[in-house]
Amino acid sequence: MAVKIGFYIHLAVYVCVNIVLVVINLATSSDYLWFKWPLLGWGIGILFHALSVFVFPKGSTITERMIEKEMKKEPPEEQNDSGDRVTSVV
């Protein structure tokens, strides 16, 4: 839920800032419309943010498999001062 809220905040800031940029561009130099460049660049960032939230969520199968693989690994064996092998417990 927090991830989706983070995305919606990001989207709202994107819209508000770009409205301001359009107004500044049109008020100062309407001959060249430069606002499209930050709109495009940041829009690509918004697109990837949306993909990471809605299409490839954190609990995707790839992530789950990687976590399971790490969980199955045995902890490394250590030796104590007398030379006996000791398995560390976390």
What does the model show?
The chain is built from 3 helices and 2 strands. The chain has a two-stranded antiparallel ribbon. 66% of the residues lie in helices and 7% in strands. A hairpin with a 5-residue loop joins β1 (77-79) and β2. By secondary structure, the chain is mainly alpha-helical. The mean pLDDT is 86. It has one domain. α1 runs antiparallel to α2 (36-55). It has helices at residues 2-28, 36-55, 61-72; strands spanning 77-79, 85-87. It is elongated and about 80 Å long.
User: Strand pairing plus helix content: what structural class?
Assistant: mainly alpha
Helical coverage, percent range: 55-70%
Low-confidence stretches: none
Strand content: 5-15%
Oligomer: single chain
Mean pLDDT: 86
Give a short account of the largest sheet. 2 strands, antiparallel
Strand tally, please?
A: 2
How does the SSE layout of this entry go?
Blueprint: H1 2-28, H2 36-55, H3 61-72, E1 77-79, E2 85-87
Antiparallel strand pairs: 1-2
Helix pairs in contact: 1-2
Keywords:
single chain, 90 residues, mainly alpha, 3 helices, elongated
Task: Give a brief outline of the structure.
This protein is mostly helical. Helices cover 66% and strands 7% of the residues.
